[in-house]
Each structure stands twice: as structure tokens, then as C-alpha cells.
Amino acid sequence: MYRKFNADANTVCAQTISGLAQKPARRMSTDAGSQLLFRQLLDYKSYTYTYLLADPESREAVLIDPVIEMVDRDVALVRDLGLDLIYAVNTHVHADHVTGTGEIKKRVPGCKSVISKVSQAKADVHISEGDTLKFGRHSLECYSTPGHTDGCMSYVLRSQAMVFTGDAVLIRGCGRDAGKLYDSVHAKILSLPRHFKILPAHDYTGQMSSTVGEELQHNLRLTRTRDEFIKIMKNLNLPYPKQIDRALPANMVCGVYEAGES
Ligand SMILES: N[C@@H](CCC(=O)N[C@@H](CSS)C(=O)NCC(=O)O)C(=O)O
């Protein structure tokens, strides 16, 4: 399904290239594998990571999982870096914070909101398994990874060996719910090459990334059998997310209520 993508996944290059000010003559290479602007941004209230990805050549950019309270920061960064933000993407309908995608759309003309079709939430673009989101020379491959919610998607940036897992896989942890989550995570995320970097939607322990190999070895939930996993998740008794009553209805409409809109 994804053969059209850069098969040379091992061409892993410096992922953090903040050189938008670089003149074209100083660029080291023109292949997509070598040039990505990458920023991991934190919302310190919900411990949500927002990711800004861009092709420094075309300047097309994507934000993954923006948070409404942090939209000023995100839009300012996009402007400072001279980027053309084309997509504001959600991994799923979040329960712990309100998405910034609707607010970003208002401030960045032409930016489209994205979420899975299965989520049934409002957005400009509804994606499904096997779809791709292109920005410049890069492509995010869309994988359905249900379990935490039915509409959860993970996004693979193969040329950089990165996977944005939302709440499906957290570092040494995972999202809520059990059987379906175990199956989709093992089939779609933990089956990626071991060097692929895992970039989750949250971390509550101050860690920023992991790898597939590391989680296969050290994730105390996901290394168990399916039955053990279901038992562990049942006994966690995770508390009700504080913002859930505000977040869920807002996130079904892209994070913003407009008078007259449903
Ligand atoms: N304290 C936070 C919620 C923390 C939480 O439950 N996070 C979710 C992902 S966001 S809904 C989760 O699945 N965590 C798994 C875990 O093991 O922590 C709040 O009140 O918002």
C-alpha cells in the first residue's frame, strides 16, 4: 500500500534542521530524506506534545495535535519560520484538551484541519488507513490504530524513520482501553523497524521520544501477552481526564463552536 514512498528508510538524517534561513546553495542535499524541519512543542497543562514538521525547501508545513491554549505560540512560530502551514492534524478526538485546529484555521488562511473519518468529527479533510498527507517533499502515511479511541490514527514519516503515535503508544505506556489497542499497536506501530522513533501525543514523565525497539523491550504493558495486557489495563483505574467534559464536545467540531454551526 505504501510502496510509492521512499523505500530507503535507512537514510536517516539529522531530523532537526532549523536552517530555514539557509540559502539554497548551502543545502546539503535535495532528497526529502535529508531535510526536515522538526519541532516538538509542549503544552505544560495537559502534557501534550504538538509537532511542527516542514519541508524547508517548499516551506509547506504540518502541525500535529495543536492545543487551543497554545495556538498563539504555534502560529507565531510558523510565521517566524516563514512556513506555509497547510494542515493542522489531529491524531484523534482528544479527551484531555481542546484541539487548536479550528482556531489555527481562522488565523492561517488556507490551512486545512484533518482528522480520521472514523472519528466522525468535523474537519476539512477526513483521512483513512492508507491515505497520505503530503507537505513539500515529505509524506505522512496514515495508519488506523484504534483502541484508545476508534478513530485514532498514527502517522508515519518513513523518510525520517518517525511515527507519531498519538495516545496509542506512550513512552513505556499506552492509551486507555485494551484488546483493540493491543492488536492495532502491535500490527501497525511495534511492527515498524526497531530504529523508528516513537513520538507520542503525551508524556507524563519528562521523556520526549522513544523507539520501536526500546518499547518492544521495556514497555511493561505492551510486552505482555494480550490477556495480561487487558488485565493490567483493567486494574490501572486511570482517573477521569479533568477536561473531558469540555474537550470531547469541542473536539467533535474542530475545537471551536461557531454560532449557527453544528
Ligand atoms: N491526568 C490527565 C489524564 C492523563 C491520562 O489519563 N492520559 C491519557 C491520555 S490523554 S486522554 C491516557 O490514556 N493515559 C494513560 C496513562 O497510562 O497515563 C487529565 O486529567 O487530563
UniProtKB/TrEMBL annotation:
Gene3D superfamilies according to UniProt: Ribonuclease Z/Hydroxyacylglutathione hydrolase-like
Chief place where the protein resides: mitochondrion
Name of this chain's protein: Persulfide dioxygenase ETHE1, mitochondrial
EC number: 1.13.11.18
Catalytic activity: S-sulfanylglutathione + O2 + H2O = sulfite + glutathione + 2 H(+)
Self-association and partners: Homodimer. Monomer. Interacts with TST. May interact with RELA.
GO terms for cellular component: mitochondrion
Family per similarity comment: Belongs to the metallo-beta-lactamase superfamily. Glyoxalase II family.
UniProt keywords, alphabetically: Acetylation, Dioxygenase, Iron, Metal-binding, Mitochondrion, Oxidoreductase, Transit peptide
PANTHER family per record: PERSULFIDE DIOXYGENASE ETHE1, PERSULFIDE DIOXYGENASE ETHE1, MITOCHONDRIAL
Subcellular location: Mitochondrion
Keyword 4Fe-4S assigned: no
Signal peptide: none
Span of domain Metallo-beta-lactamase: 47-202
Molecular functions per Gene Ontology: metal ion binding; sulfur dioxygenase activity
